[in-house]
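Researcher: Here's my situation. A collaborator sent me these components and asked whether they could plausibly form a single complex. I don't have experimental data yet, so a predicted model of the whole assembly would be a useful starting point for our discussion.
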Amino acid sequence: MTSRLVTRREALAAGVAVAGSVMLGGCGRPLPPTYGSVLRLADNFTYVAHRTLLPGQALVREYSRADLSSFPAVGTIDPAASKRPEVAESYRRWQAGAFGEWRLAISGAVARPGAWSLQELKALPSRTQITKHVCEEGWTAIGEWTGVPLSRVLDAVGLQPSARFVTFKSLDRRYDSIDLLDALHPQTVLAYGMNGRDLPVAHGAPLRLRVERQIGYKSMKYLTEMIVTEHLDDGGDRGYAKNGWAWYNGI
Amino acid sequence: MAAVSVAALVFTGVEILMVHPRLYWGEAGNDLTPPLLELPISRNYRHGGWTASTPLLDGPGAPVSAGRTFHIFNENGWGRSLHFLSAWGLVGTGLVYVLIGVAGGHFHRHFIGGAKYGTLQRASYAIVVFVVAPVLVLTGLTMSPAVAAAAPMLLDLFGGHQSARTLHFFAFAALTLFTTAHLVMVIRSGFARQIRAMTVGDRS
């Protein structure tokens, strides 16, 4: 059998070359640390492959009101019942004042850092979208989200040219970040409404993130702080990567 | 490499299913919606650890929300990442196989013409290579929110995210059955001779 158009060896070499060029294409891209795990390396490969091969700002499918489904609340479902007294106390105080005291602190590589109230965020142009929440566990739910597109907020605070990532912190001590491509995606929203009502406590009141092209856990609830950074901050001990989960999870 | 990838995909696939052992049809499916099928394969099966339901809209039969109070089995941190690492491994070797199959005439000689294999054998191998394996790969891709955003026709093709997940499971089950039958036949028809044929080449 010597007349084959492609030999196994040639095909293998071509495969390695394609995989290699995808990884090389990602070399200029800052990646989260792997903490010595081949699994985190695989997550980074997925991230680079998605960013290289998929169109930059494709929109996720949006549904109609008739498609709204029941929606489980998982993770933290009531910060007022937190075992951490400072968390429970803060949340109870906010609830007592209908979240009038709550603020989103914005800092980092922005021209105008500051603390935003819910009313100030609601005064910015809003977006309502009916999208599918995809949980890493395997379930999905369709919900309607109303909020301010993150890009509008970033415009309002003046993104500096050095900005590359947006890091979020929440009352329930989550610490996570997204790249600027996701941050500026038209469907990335800071949501204060769900299904036409105020965001329920179990779903992250008063403000949660929606990152529609990634798995549900990236859409952090109970936001308190947003920091625009030049470098990727994966949250270290409090972040997903060091705790055994993918930082990028669009898969 | 392909065999290791497949073994890891099967192992982590079962682990991932154990985290949410319910299958649905359509786009949305979760513990608060009726399943098509429930598999009693982990402590998460019908765990019942939910707060009282609250309606998310007005009117009878409106969608509801409930908070989970049960500490579920969940090893998806490594399970999912290992599943995708293995999938990448199989994408590489699979592409090579298809390239060689088409360019080298392997598919044509063994599946379409030639008397080396029986009709039933040829049909079952062709179904695995051209139907089950592509369905397995495409339903897997459909479940990626980033891929589904880029290629929403995948959602239409399979009838939604949860339909794709259900088909992913049944394609896996079909492939596992086929592989088991295949291995039994290899062993019964002369293990040493078959392995020789696959590696150093047979004498026919």
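Model: Some features of this prediction you could bring to your collaborator: Strands of chain B lie at 22-23, 37-38, 54-55, 64-67. Chain B has a mean pLDDT of 91.
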